[in-house]
Design brief:
heterodimer; A: alpha/beta; four-stranded parallel β-sheet; globular; B: alpha/beta; disordered N terminus
Amino acid sequence: MRSADIVVIGGGPAGLSAAIVAAEAGCQVVLIDEAPLPGGCLRWRIHEVPDDDGQPTRAWVLAERLAERARTVGVDIRSGAVAWGLFPDTVVAVAAVGPVQDLPAAYHIRATRIILATGSTDRSLPFPGGSLPGVFSARAAQILMHLHRVVPGRRVVVVGAGPESDEVAADLVMAGVEVVARVDPGQGNTGMMSGLSLRAVGEVGVTSVMIDGTLVAAEGVIIATGRQPDAQLAIMAGCACGFLTNSGGWAPSRTTHLETSISGLYVAGDAGGIGDDRVPLVEGRLSGIAAARSLGHADDADVERAMSAFRNLSRERELEEADAPRLSYTQV
Amino acid sequence: MGNQDPTLRMSDHPVLAIEYSPTRVVFSFDGQPVDALEGESLAAALIANGHRVMRTMPKIGEPRGAYCMVGRCSDCLVIADGLPNVRACLESVRDGMVVLTQHGAGESAPGFVDRLHQGGIA
């Protein structure tokens, strides 16, 4: 069986950052990513996101920069590979989803440390007509537009309030799509609509949308109700989890160094709780250096620098939240 | 199916470079020729050409089409070159591909079970 010092699962901003830092510290790092190219969500977003120095950078440009840096420092990036299982003794089971060059279609890696950076999935919203063709998640709309250069419809309704909704609405307008309405389902954290009546209408696909009694013509409905952590591997492996009311729901509980209740397994980025675009970079770097330190490839000063950045970001976010209108979440 | 404007491909964009694969291909969907670009997402090619329905559900027969575009929701499953349960969102278009709407569960795909038996499976 193959082995590696550190296996990073997920090639988005958190995973790439963790892999870069760990490899720079001298660890042998394998990065497993199911997409054909690394970058995670940065591949299909066109928003400007902060880079490591806080400079606004086009998402896909940051993806390319991180991927290039990872390759330069010797990270073994395996694209088109799904890590489908974590087994005792930190064995990662991997299967290929596409053509493989010199690797078998399925194999195991014994990892001394594992950093899970598997990101998030979009929250859905059940509503009448919601399963009709023409209803898409927010990231689906972005993938269609930005990876495939296809619009999800000429006229769409955007459902959701929050940064994801703002971003995809702006993306749609930029792509020449008419956003005929934006509606807030008022769901808070319950996943159910509150105070909004919504129905998608059509025989074989959306042709109109009924919003609080008003029928609007539209071929698409974009569900932009936020993200939830995707930490399936950690959860399957039996990590202690907690429900993060303000961060998308269930996520593995972590130490200050982002280690889970399973020794040697770290979680960084959205998979540990939904944050903003600064979080994956900072958490990726912290988990990478913490894992490297635990293998003797970095020292306490290196970890303290990453911890300091993490604390600064946490403090900044607390202050920002204090200034922002407080969202109220219904207790489930 | 679907009465969509067929030209859902973006022609220009203020930020993105609209660079298409230079290789145009043709595949068939339920017997109709569909113009596409080599290697693009099958679901994207179908949507661009106004084909939003990709499958119908077992038992209830309701139409479904791509929803998540990341291979998780199973609403985009089609029969591609005889193989059912193909996620159109992740599948790359090939010239001459034969794609059918998947009606019901995968084992209902024409000839599929026979092929399984021929292969000594099931």
